[in-house]
């Protein structure tokens, strides 16, 4: 039997639904049957409503009903909301909006500083090597410089101002829900292909062709090799954005930037040593396939918080935060 308090609660929500329908035409009706209390309210995706009943407080916001009594999401209401909300909403989205999220200019600024900073640090090291070789008249045997450039390929992340180690492989969503897996396209190569192509084919040809250019120029800090350093800096930035920050959209753009800088490097190498340029251009085949794979991955993996594809630009959303290495 419904008590007087139950009746007053329902009446209050009914009045609020009428007012909401006059001011917000995009609201939807939400119902939950929680014996002995029946709740019916008009729910707006842009506002929050709450109801206190005894020691239990219901807060309607972002597509979910949070109960202070058992600190769990009310499954009846959230399941109803997931069916009733318009496509731009989400059952657990705290930032439901029809408009696109704002641009994260802080992230863009830090990415730019990190890219320029890494490029400057690598140039400084190569410049010092040139001075050292010139001062002591050291020889630069071709077969000795190949291991140097190969190791440099593997360790360029030490010059990055952004974190590159995987502290977490998950991307956190609102409410600390973890999504640690991405759906892969059906034509994704098996894991061992990546393990072979990157260190052997890509890194190997980078090191070999860079040594060929060094043999012609006699300098580490020359224009063609610095174009290669620019390419490696973009690669480290992509690693941070894709694997650390887990921004799938911007990582697609950075992968195409990686392909463009590789093409520029191959052209710069070709102007010094045509064979070196042609050999390095072969790696464009693999990089183009990787870019296509990343693009398809972005298409089939909507943001778990919004249900839509992630923006290609860095969005200023609570779950994403760009930090330098020294920031806590």
From TrEMBL:
Transmembrane regions: 140-162, 191-214, 220-239, 251-269
Keywords, comma-separated and alphabetical: Membrane, Signal, Transmembrane, Transmembrane helix
Entry keyword annotation includes Nucleotide-binding: no
Domain of life: Eukaryota
Gene Ontology CC annotation, any one: membrane
Leader sequence residues: 1-20
UniProt xrefs under InterPro entries: TspO_MBR
Stated name of the protein: TspO/MBR family protein
């Amino acid at each position: 039997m419904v008590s007087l308090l139950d009746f007053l609660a329902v009446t209050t929500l009914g009045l609020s639904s009428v007012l909401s329908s006059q001011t917000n035409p995009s609201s939807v009706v939400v119902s939950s049957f929680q014996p002995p209390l029946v709740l019916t309210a008009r729910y707006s995706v842009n506002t929050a409503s709450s109801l206190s009943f005894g020691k239990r407080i219901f807060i309607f916001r972002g597509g979910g009903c949070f109960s202070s009594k058992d600190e769990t999401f009310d499954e009846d209401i959230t399941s109803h909301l997931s069916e009733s909300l318009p496509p731009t909403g989400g059952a657990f989205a705290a930032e439901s909006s029809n408009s696109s999220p704002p641009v994260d200019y802080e992230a863009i600024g830090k990415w730019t500083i990190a890219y320029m900073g890494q490029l400057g640090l690598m140039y400084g090291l190569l410049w010092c090597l040139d001075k050292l070789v010139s001062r002591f008249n050291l020889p630069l045997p071709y077969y000795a410089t190949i291991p140097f450039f190969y190791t440099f390929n593997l360790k360029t992340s030490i010059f990055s101002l952004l974190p590159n180690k995987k502290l977490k492989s998950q991307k956190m969503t609102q409410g600390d829900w973890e999504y640690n897996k991405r759906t892969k396209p059906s034509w994704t190569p098996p894991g061992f292909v990546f393990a072979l192509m990157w260190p052997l084919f890509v890194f190997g040809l980078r090191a070999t062709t860079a040594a060929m250019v060094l043999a012609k120029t006699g300098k580490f800090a020359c224009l063609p090799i610095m174009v290669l350093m620019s390419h490696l800096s973009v690669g480290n930035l992509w690693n941070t954005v894709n694997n650390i920050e887990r921004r799938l959209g911007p990582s697609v753009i950075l992968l195409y930037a990686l392909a463009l800088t590789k093409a520029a490097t191959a052209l710069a190498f070709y102007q010094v040593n045509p064979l070196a340029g042609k050999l390095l251009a072969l790696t464009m085949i693999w990089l183009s396939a990787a870019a296509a794979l990343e693009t398809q991955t972005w298409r089939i993996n909507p943001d778990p918080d919004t249900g839509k594809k992630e923006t290609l630009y860095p969005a200023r959303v609570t779950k994403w935060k760009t930090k330098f290495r020294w920031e806590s």
